[in-house]
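Here is one chain, start to finish.
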Amino acid sequence: MVRLYMVLRLPITDYPLLMKGTHLGEFEELVLLTIAALVNDAYSVAICDELAKHAGRPVKLGVVHAVLHRLERKGYVKSRLGEATSVRGGKRKRYYTVTNGGKAALVRAKEVRDSLWNVIPEFSLKHP
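Its structure:
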Protein backbone atom coordinates (compact mmCIF):
# COMPACT_ATOMS: atom_id res chain seq x y z
CA MET A 1 0.00 0.00 0.00
CA VAL A 2 2.92 2.34 0.64
CA ARG A 3 3.98 2.19 -2.99
CA LEU A 4 0.47 3.06 -4.17
CA TYR A 5 0.51 6.11 -1.92
CA MET A 6 3.93 7.10 -3.25
CA VAL A 7 2.73 6.91 -6.85
CA LEU A 8 -0.60 8.63 -6.19
CA ARG A 9 0.87 11.08 -3.69
CA LEU A 10 -2.14 10.60 -1.44
CA PRO A 11 -2.06 11.82 2.14
CA ILE A 12 -2.29 8.99 4.63
CA THR A 13 -5.65 10.41 5.79
CA ASP A 14 -7.13 9.40 2.42
CA TYR A 15 -6.41 5.71 3.04
CA PRO A 16 -10.11 4.92 3.83
CA LEU A 17 -11.07 6.11 0.34
CA LEU A 18 -9.24 3.10 -1.09
CA MET A 19 -10.75 0.58 1.30
CA LYS A 20 -13.83 -1.53 0.73
CA GLY A 21 -16.96 0.07 2.11
CA THR A 22 -16.29 3.63 1.06
CA HIS A 23 -14.41 2.68 -2.10
CA LEU A 24 -16.19 3.62 -5.31
CA GLY A 25 -16.11 0.69 -7.73
CA GLU A 26 -15.86 1.21 -11.48
CA PHE A 27 -19.51 0.43 -12.25
CA GLU A 28 -20.63 2.43 -9.21
CA GLU A 29 -18.66 5.38 -10.59
CA LEU A 30 -20.35 5.02 -13.99
CA VAL A 31 -23.81 4.86 -12.41
CA LEU A 32 -23.03 7.88 -10.22
CA LEU A 33 -21.77 9.85 -13.24
CA THR A 34 -24.92 8.90 -15.15
CA ILE A 35 -27.14 10.11 -12.31
CA ALA A 36 -25.26 13.40 -12.30
CA ALA A 37 -25.66 13.70 -16.08
CA LEU A 38 -29.41 12.99 -15.98
CA VAL A 39 -29.90 15.65 -13.28
CA ASN A 40 -33.63 15.51 -12.38
CA ASP A 41 -34.57 12.56 -14.61
CA ALA A 42 -32.39 9.86 -13.04
CA TYR A 43 -34.52 6.79 -12.45
CA SER A 44 -33.40 3.19 -12.99
CA VAL A 45 -34.58 2.67 -16.59
CA ALA A 46 -33.25 6.06 -17.73
CA ILE A 47 -29.93 5.29 -16.00
CA CYS A 48 -29.72 1.94 -17.83
CA ASP A 49 -30.52 3.53 -21.19
CA GLU A 50 -28.02 6.38 -20.76
CA LEU A 51 -25.30 4.06 -19.54
CA ALA A 52 -25.85 1.63 -22.41
CA LYS A 53 -25.70 4.51 -24.88
CA HIS A 54 -22.37 5.78 -23.56
CA ALA A 55 -20.79 2.42 -22.74
CA GLY A 56 -21.83 0.84 -26.03
CA ARG A 57 -23.02 -2.32 -24.30
CA PRO A 58 -26.25 -3.49 -22.69
CA VAL A 59 -26.75 -2.78 -19.01
CA LYS A 60 -28.93 -5.04 -16.88
CA LEU A 61 -31.63 -3.34 -14.84
CA GLY A 62 -31.13 -5.70 -11.88
CA VAL A 63 -27.44 -4.84 -11.69
CA VAL A 64 -28.22 -1.11 -11.76
CA HIS A 65 -30.79 -1.58 -8.98
CA ALA A 66 -28.19 -3.37 -6.83
CA VAL A 67 -25.66 -0.58 -7.43
CA LEU A 68 -28.25 2.11 -6.66
CA HIS A 69 -29.03 0.44 -3.32
CA ARG A 70 -25.32 0.16 -2.54
CA LEU A 71 -24.69 3.81 -3.44
CA GLU A 72 -27.60 4.86 -1.24
CA ARG A 73 -26.22 2.83 1.70
CA LYS A 74 -22.85 4.52 1.22
CA GLY A 75 -24.56 7.91 1.28
CA TYR A 76 -23.49 8.79 -2.28
CA VAL A 77 -27.06 9.09 -3.62
CA LYS A 78 -30.47 9.80 -2.18
CA SER A 79 -33.78 8.79 -3.68
CA ARG A 80 -37.32 10.08 -3.72
CA LEU A 81 -40.55 8.75 -5.17
CA GLY A 82 -42.14 10.65 -8.04
CA GLU A 83 -45.84 11.04 -8.67
CA ALA A 84 -47.97 8.06 -9.70
CA THR A 85 -48.83 8.01 -13.40
CA SER A 86 -51.48 6.15 -15.38
CA VAL A 87 -48.80 5.19 -17.95
CA ARG A 88 -47.13 3.08 -15.26
CA GLY A 89 -50.39 1.67 -13.91
CA GLY A 90 -50.28 3.96 -10.89
CA LYS A 91 -46.71 3.00 -9.96
CA ARG A 92 -44.31 5.73 -8.96
CA LYS A 93 -40.75 6.13 -10.27
CA ARG A 94 -37.87 6.33 -7.81
CA TYR A 95 -35.59 9.23 -8.74
CA TYR A 96 -31.97 9.48 -7.65
CA THR A 97 -29.73 12.48 -7.01
CA VAL A 98 -26.04 12.64 -6.14
CA THR A 99 -25.32 13.79 -2.58
CA ASN A 100 -22.41 15.97 -1.52
CA GLY A 101 -20.66 12.77 -0.41
CA GLY A 102 -21.23 11.30 -3.86
CA LYS A 103 -19.84 14.42 -5.51
CA ALA A 104 -16.76 14.23 -3.30
CA ALA A 105 -16.31 10.53 -4.16
CA LEU A 106 -16.53 11.32 -7.89
CA VAL A 107 -14.01 14.15 -7.61
CA ARG A 108 -11.66 11.93 -5.61
CA ALA A 109 -11.99 9.08 -8.15
CA LYS A 110 -11.17 11.51 -10.96
CA GLU A 111 -8.16 12.83 -9.06
CA VAL A 112 -6.84 9.30 -8.52
CA ARG A 113 -7.33 8.40 -12.19
CA ASP A 114 -5.74 11.66 -13.34
CA SER A 115 -2.74 11.15 -11.05
CA LEU A 116 -2.22 7.66 -12.47
CA TRP A 117 -2.58 8.89 -16.05
CA ASN A 118 0.03 11.55 -15.28
CA VAL A 119 2.67 9.00 -14.22
CA ILE A 120 2.31 6.75 -17.29
CA PRO A 121 5.20 7.28 -19.68
CA GLU A 122 3.89 8.50 -23.04
CA PHE A 123 5.52 5.76 -25.07
CA SER A 124 3.75 2.96 -23.16
CA LEU A 125 0.32 3.94 -24.52
CA LYS A 126 1.27 4.63 -28.13
CA HIS A 127 0.28 2.03 -30.69
CA PRO A 128 3.10 0.77 -32.94
